[in-house]
From TrEMBL:
Keyword hit for Disulfide bond: no
Protein name: Electron transfer flavoprotein-ubiquinone oxidoreductase
Protein's gene: ETFDH
InterPro entries in the record: ETF-QO, ETF-QO/FixC_UQ-bd, FAD/NAD-bd_sf, FAD/NAD-binding_dom
Classification lineage: Eukaryota, Metazoa, Chordata, Craniata, Vertebrata
Residues of the FAD/NAD(P)-binding domain: 87-137
Major enzyme class: oxidoreductase
Species of the source: Gallus gallus
Length: 536
């Protein structure tokens, strides 16, 4: 069941709210009556659905919510962990984490130092959780490996053609890409990012980095003085209901002088660190988007290797930030990577990003490329869209944040790989200086590498993010996305982001009044009732 609403504000009118209240009240009575009938008529089904055994209730919450020392099923289980010591532990095997590991080992080799670097990655293989299809700016790669071509880096498709347009329901309005605008991709490469990350992993391993794929960092460990001690990997051998299996094993503890967190967007360990060290005290709240991506094989006659296409507009309205991309890869077969990005601050609660992506693929200017083709891979990931205004404090005793974990993506470019890699390299240079400083006197057991944040703010990464800081917030005007395009044309193209002001994000849905929120809650309850009705 789906409600079609042309104007979401209709939901917040008093008459509509009253009608919804009456409907939900009646629906609740029906639901409770049907629930009792189901319990009386189908007792065996009811019992089977709500208990895992006859004597022990099912507990599926995480052990951080329901501690194991209060769960009788865990009595007598050996909870001792094996611990390993390293100089640096890196959480996350993406471009940022691998670049940090590589740079550390490069510096150690240059100065004849022995530094143990361990990297844990939740995917079964390095690169397995990285979505293919990206437009890579090679600036950081050239700094990390000037001879990347000789090393066989999988960058096979230089950009040869750039196209940008505004979509209406039936047509496409071409927009010229002027030199200097964020969407210019001259000199960039279209890559299968999973293959690129796997190649970085091979380079890291060759330099002596210890890679541990298949091990997710599940917990942050702390010294008694409050500094980060390291991480613990996930326990294995646990049943679905939270009880230990006969094969249960505790995770591994990895202790380090510095722990680098490169989890990507909205990492669960980084969220704990934000709270413990109050890292977001002096920045705005982060805003997020979702990127949906697919990889297709298409008819070779429609294949244009090196072509990059971006669009805004239909099927989204002007107040919903988002757009699409379509990249033609040259990987030995006619491949295209296509995707759709939607900012998660959209106002219509019934908008479904995945459905909008499917609608976009049926546009008259998009569908012909895909006709006769076959989708061979798909996925999605979260995106940080807050930009410079939402970057938290990056260092704390015993650790630091790099890459997309703090949100270093260039939002208008829809690119974060190059900034993530550079942040990892800068972090490693600062860490190496502290590890090799014989006169260093640290106030905490875990080293506080504040030099990293200082160096990042002096680098081209910070300059790049500063220049585009106002583009995303400018999309919240009455003109929406088109207002952002006008702002970009005037202030970014002419002034290169040097305007003497910084716009703020509107906040966490602060535009909704209290009565509007109540109306939304009522409608959420109604939808939940419909879902329960369908289960009966």
């Amino acid at each position: 069941m789906e409600l079609e609403i042309d104007d979401p504000l209709v939901l917040f009118q008093p008459r509509t709210v009253l009608a919804n209240l009456f409907s939900v009240f009646a629906a609740r009575q029906c639901f409770h009556a049907l629930k009792s009938i189901k319990r009386d008529c189908l007792p065996s089904l009811h019992k089977a659905g709500w208990a895992s055994t006859a004597t022990v209730p099912r507990i599926t919450t995480h052990y951080t919510i329901h501690p194991r020392d209060k769960d009788k099923r865990w009595e007598g289980v050996n909870m001792e962990r094996f611990a390993e010591e390293a100089d640096v532990v890196i959480v996350g095997g993406g471009p940022a984490g691998l670049s940090a590991a590589i740079r550390l080992k490069q510096l150690a080799a240059e100065q004849g130092k022995e530094i143990r670097v361990c990297l844990v990655e939740k995917a079964s293989q390095i690169g397995a959780h990285t979505l293919s299809g990206a437009c890579l700016e090679p600036r950081s790669l050239e700094e990390l490996f000037p001879d990347w071509k000789e090393r066989g880096a999988p960058l096979h498709t230089p950009v040869t053609e750039d196209k940008f347009g505004i979509l209406t329901k039936k047509y496409r309005i071409p927009v010229p890409i002027l030199p200097g605008l964020p969407m210019v991709n001259h000199g960039n490469y279209i890559v299968r990012l999973g293959h690129f990350v796997r190649w970085l992993g091979e380079q890291a391993e060759a330099l002596g980095v210890e890679l541990y794929p298949g091990y997710a960092a599940a917990e942050v460990l702390f010294h008694e003085d409050g500094s980060v001690k390291g991480i613990a990997t996930n326990d294995v051998g646990i049943q679905k209901d939270g009880a230990p299996k006969a094969t249960f094993e505790r995770g591994l503890e990895l202790h380090a002088k510095v722990t680098v967190f490169a989890e990507g967007c909205h990492g669960h360990l980084a969220k704990q660190l934000y709270t413990k060290y109050n890292l977001r005290e002096k920045c705005q709240a982060q805003s997020y988007g979702i990127g949906l991506k697919e990889l297709w094989t298409i008819d070779e006659k429609k294949w244009k290797p090196g072509r990059v296409e971006h669009t805004v507009g239909w099927p989204l309205d002007r107040h919903t930030y988002g757009g699409s991309f379509l990249y033609h890869l040259n990987e030995g077969e006619p491949l295209v990577a296509l995707g759709f990005v939607v900012g998660l601050d959209y106002q219509n609660p019934y908008l479904n990003p995945f459905r909008e992506f499917q609608r976009w693929k049926h546009h008259p200017t998009i569908a012909p490329t895909l006709e006769g083709g076959k989708r061979i891979a798909y996925g999605a990931r979260a995106l940080n869209e807050g930009g410079l205004q939402s970057i938290p404090k990056l260092t704390f005793p015993g650790g630091l944040l790099i890459g997309c974990s703090p949100g270093l993506m260039n939002v208008p470019k829809i690119k974060g790989t190059h900034t993530a890699m550079k942040s990892g390299m800068l972090a490693s240079e600062a860490i190496f200086n502290q590890l090799t400083n014989e006169n260093l006197q640290s106030k905490t057991i875990g080293l506080d590498v504040q030099e990293y944040e200082e160096n990042l703010k002096k680098s081209w990464v910070w300059k790049e993010l500063y220049s585009v800081r106002n583009i995303r917030p400018s999309c919240h005007s009455m003109l929406g996305v088109y207002g952002g395009m006008i702002y970009t044309g005037i202030f970014y193209w002419l002034l290169r982001g040097k305007e003497p002001w910084t716009l703020k994000h509107p906040g966490n849905f602060s535009f909704l009044k209290e009565d509007a929120c109540q109306s939304l809650l009522i409608l959420v309850e109604a939808r939940a009732f419909v879902a329960k009705w369908q289960e009966l």
